[in-house]
Design goal:
The complex is a heterodimer of chains A (about 180) and B (about 425).
Chain A (H helix, E strand, L loop, with lengths): L1 H4 L4 H4 L5 H11 L11 H12 L4 H11 L3 H10 L11 E6 L2 H4 L3 H12 L12 E6 L11 E3 L3 E3 L4 H16 L1
Parallel strand pairs in A: 1-2
Antiparallel strand pairs in A: 1-3, 3-4
Helix pairs in contact in A: 3-4, 4-5, 5-6
Chain B lengths: L26 H6 L4 H8 L4 H11 L11 H6 L10 E6 L8 H8 L1 H15 L3 E6 L4 H16 L15 E6 L9 H8 L23 E5 H13 L1 H7 L7 E8 L5 E6 L2 E2 H7 L9 E5 L8 E2 H5 L2 E2 L1 H7 L7 E6 L4 H15 L5 H18 L7 H12 L7 H26 L9
Parallel strand pairs in B: 1-2, 1-4, 2-3, 5-11
Antiparallel strand pairs in B: 5-6, 7-10, 8-9, 8-11
Helix pairs in contact in B: 2-9, 3-6, 3-10, 5-6, 6-9, 9-10, 14-15, 14-17, 15-16, 15-17, 16-17
The chains are: A alpha+beta (about 180), B alpha/beta (about 425).
The complex binds flavin mononucleotide and FE2/S2 (inorganic) cluster.
């Protein structure tokens, strides 16, 4: 932590991201007036998380350095927004919305099915490190309930137990390849 | 984009969502539907910005994001003579439980938003705009990026649009999972790369907004209504609905209906007709309760709801609010205690923690409802819930406090016997609820 707090220290300057990721971050920075690089921090952290699966202190420090922000300001953002993971997760993070509108269309059963199938509760990761299960709040997709997000980006709609089994099988097979 | 059985019949009166099939979202299709005519018209005729605002005022368009504030009036608050940067922001951070209408606009008709924002930028003299998209709908965000690229390529955005001398640069950006960022000043903080903590108002964004500059923020659906208003006139829009409740509104219907989905209808449609459009009650069950405007609004029992029309003033008269237009339907098998418990947990989770009444109060509400649900309720708990709610509402920087308090008070007001039964008998009156 101490080391990380020293802006400009060596670790901040190590390139933590691929050139492709940096190109994408530059594109985000260009959306804002040049004196407001900080505006791109959510996008930059999302890109960094896609590359590293989660946000380590080193990764956040790099983003801070890249955007010219104090590291603490980046940690604040990373811990405020639910979709960031500041701790390692399973290879596949499954987030299911259980809010009332979804619950009225069997999201609670879907969540129970996932827990039972994976043998874990919300906030836990399977022993093989493949799956992390998270409880989500409204995705703005309530008409498609139950809805599951895979690693934040892929939305799966109308996930009844049968479709959930299919998804788990698909991801498990993908992990083996 | 996954679409196993997407339901795209938005109803016969749709304007914003008219003629969409899920595939015809591109620029060419939008132009074939009459798209960008309104923007071209005001640019070609060099319509005075004040006249654009006057037309929007005449239309009776009210904000579709939750508060229902008159849009034309909001636009007129922007300082016209101000010579520095002014910003335009679209609130596409749709996160109010039950609401999924902006997503359909964004993914199936993204150019209508771009055109609406360009017209708004022209009217208020904004050179830059941002469309802040909810983080969870990633493929929709990518769709917005594609549409934006098309618009720039066609010269409909950028410098000197269509040779008119008017310039407007629009960008998409996204949140990453924080309900509070739907609140407009939290959204501005987020756009500036910070935690989404609401700002104290006043000053309002029209004076001090993004980067401290004059800023107007509207909901996606609000902007999307603008091209039609400019093309057909404010009066025509107003006449579609009712006085003070102009135009059409998209309602997102969820819960115990046969066909959950979005329906765009003329404001003032009887609730019963909307229920019919959604296929009626699921499995022939009976309507018990409805939250007519998203989870932050008061719940209403069936008899009141069935006698209500779907517009801002009628729903307010019935004791709730139109809010974001999310209509959550519950049948007789649903336990009101359990339903409220899930909502209370949500507000507890999403409180940003800045104001003490909200930070402490939302957790307190959740814990009390939780013990009632689990057979440990005490006799004084219902009065306690009301008292805690009263001490949150109106005492916070933003309206999340009220959003947490209003449902609690309305659930107890209309379904007190169910809560009392839980306390007295340590079990549920409607045990069938799954
Ligand atoms: C807690 C909270 C959440 C909100 N969420 C949203 C939202 O997701 N989308 C939205 O458009 N407005 C939301 N609002 C309302 C906005 O603050 C603002 O009133 C609205 O974007 C203004 O646009 P309009 O006038 O076009 O409705 C929210 C307000 C609060 C207090
Ligand atoms: S309540 Fe689940 S997506 Fe909206």
């Amino acid at each position: 932590m101490c080391r990380a707090l020293r802006t400009g220290s060596l670790v901040n300057r190590l390139i933590m991201l691929s050139s492709d990721a940096l190109k994408r971050i530059d594109r985000e920075i260009a959306k804002y007036p040049p004196e407001h690089r900080q505006s791109a921090v959510i996008a930059a952290l999302a890109i960094a998380q896609d590359e590293h699966a989660w946000l380590s202190t080193e990764t956040m420090d790099f983003v801070a350095h890249y955007l010219g922000m104090p590291p603490i300001a980046v940690y604040e953002v990373a811990t405020f927004y639910e979709m960031f993971d500041t701790e390692p997760t399973g290879k596949y993070k499954l987030t299911i919305c259980t809010n009332l509108p979804c619950a009225l269309s069997s999201a609670a059963q879907a969540a129970a099915h996932l827990k039972q199938k994976l043998g874990i509760d919300f906030g836990e990761t399977t022993a093989d490190g493949l799956f992390t299960l998270k409880e989500g709040e409204c995705f703005g997709a309530c008409g498609d309930a139950p809805v599951v997000l895979v690693n934040n980006k892929r939305m799966c709609s109308w996930m009844k137990p049968e479709q959930l089994d299919g998804l788990i099988a698909e991801l498990s097979a993908e992990a083996k390849r | 984009m996954n679409a196993p059985s997407e339901f795209l019949d938005y109803g016969p009166d749709a304007l914003i969502l008219a003629g969409l099939n899920g595939r015809n979202w591109g620029l060419g299709d939008y132009i074939a539907r009459g798209g960008y005519e309104a923007l071209k018209k005001i640019l070609a005729e060099k319509v005075a910005p004040a006249n654009v605002i006057a037309e929007v005022k005449k239309s009776g368009l009210r904000g579709r994001g939750g508060a229902g504030f008159p849009t034309g009036l909001k636009w007129s608050f922007m300082p016209q003579q101000y010579s520095g940067d002014k910003y335009l922001v679209c609130n596409s951070d749709e996160g109010e439980p039950g609401t999924f209408k902006d997503r359909d606009i964004l993914r199936y008709n993204p150019h209508i938003l771009i055109e609406g924002m360009a017209i708004a930028a022209y009217a208020m003299g904004c050179k830059r705009g941002y469309n802040y998209v909810h983080g969870e709908i990633w493929d929709t965000y990518e769709r917005c990026e594609e549409a934006l690229e098309e618009a720039y390529q066609a010269g409909l955005l950028g410098d000197n649009i269509l040779g008119s001398g008017f310039s407007f640069h629009l960008y998409n950006c996204h949140g990453y999972g924080a309900y509070i960022c739907g609140e407009e000043t939290a959204l501005l903080e987020s756009l500036e790369g910070k935690k989404g903590m609401p700002r104290f108002k006043p000053p309002f964004p029209a004076s001090v907004g993004m980067y401290g500059k004059p800023t107007t923020i509207n909901n996606t659906e609000t902007f999307a209504a603008v091209p039609w208003i400019i093309r057909k006139g404010g009066e025509a829009f107003l006449n579609l609905g009712r006085p003070n409740n102009g135009g059409t509104k998209i309602f997102s219907v969820t819960g115990d209906v046969e066909r959950p989905g979005n329906f765009e209808v003329k404001l003032g449609l009887p609730f019963a007709s909307l229920l019919d459009m959604a296929g009626g009650m699921r499995g022939g069950h009976k309507l018990k309760a409805c939250i007519p405007g998203g989870s932050s609004m008061p719940v209403l029992p069936a008899d009141i709801m069935m006698a209500t029309d779907m517009d801002y003033d009628s729903i307010a008269k019935a004791g709730s609010m139109l809010g974001s237009g999310a209509v959550i339907i519950m049948d007789e098998t649903r336990c009101m205690v359990r339903s409220l418990l899930r909502l209370s947990y949500f507000y507890f989770e999403e409180s940003c923690g800045q104001c003490t009444p909200c930070r402490e109060g939302t957790g307190w509400l959740w814990r009390v409802v939780n013990r009632i649900e689990h057979g440990q309720g005490r006799n004084e708990d219902l009065d306690l819930l009301i008292s805690v709610s009263d001490n949150i509402a109106g005492r916070t920087i933003c309206a999340l406090g009220d959003a947490a308090a209003l449902p609690v008070k309305s659930f107890i007001k209309h379904f007190r016997d169910e809560f009392q039964y839980h306390i007295d008998h340590k079990q549920c009156l409607v045990p069938a609820y799954v």
